[in-house]
């Protein structure tokens, strides 16, 4: 049987549309915070395994109120509030593994 990271990696490689951490958590019946932790490790592994030819791509989170896009995130996560308008209505990041 494969590990949870291997199963998440396989699923993200085969999907056509990016998924949120919440979607992944529901599919694998794990906590959302655990998903974010796995995604950080998966990103590093994918880069090493495919010598930079594939990557875990993150569609950045976006404020649903003012449209601010969180482009400078170092780790995959959902921000708690918008730095521009202070809204907590944030669209979560979405993830997919793609050839680059």
Which properties best describe this structure?
100 residues; alpha+beta; Arc Repressor Mutant, subunit A; 3-stranded antiparallel β-sheet; two-stranded antiparallel ribbon; 3 helices; 37% helix; 18% strand
Give a quick rundown of the structure.
This protein is α+β, with helices and mostly antiparallel strands.
Could you explain the architecture of this structure?
The chain is an alpha+beta fold. The protein has a single domain, classed as Orthogonal Bundle (Arc Repressor Mutant, subunit A). Helices cover 37% and strands 18% of the residues. The chain has a three-stranded antiparallel beta sheet with strand order 1-5-2. Helix 1 crosses helix 3 (32-49) and helix 2 crosses helix 3. The longest helix is centred in the middle third of the chain and has 18 residues, at 32-49. It starts with a helix and ends with a strand.
What's the story with the biggest beta sheet?
Answer: 3 strands, antiparallel
Number of domains: 1
Give me the CATH architecture, please: Orthogonal Bundle
Helix/strand structural class: alpha+beta
In the predicted model, the low-confidence regions spanning at least 5 consecutive residues are: none
- Helical run tally: 3
Order of strands across the main sheet: 1-5-2
| N→C terminal distance | 29 Å
Helix-strand string: HEHHEEEE
Mean pLDDT: 94
Sum up the overall morphology in one term: globular
Q: Per CATH, what is the topology?
A: Arc Repressor Mutant, subunit A
Percent range for β-strand residues: 15-25%
Q: How big is the Rg?
A: 14 Å
Strand tally: 5
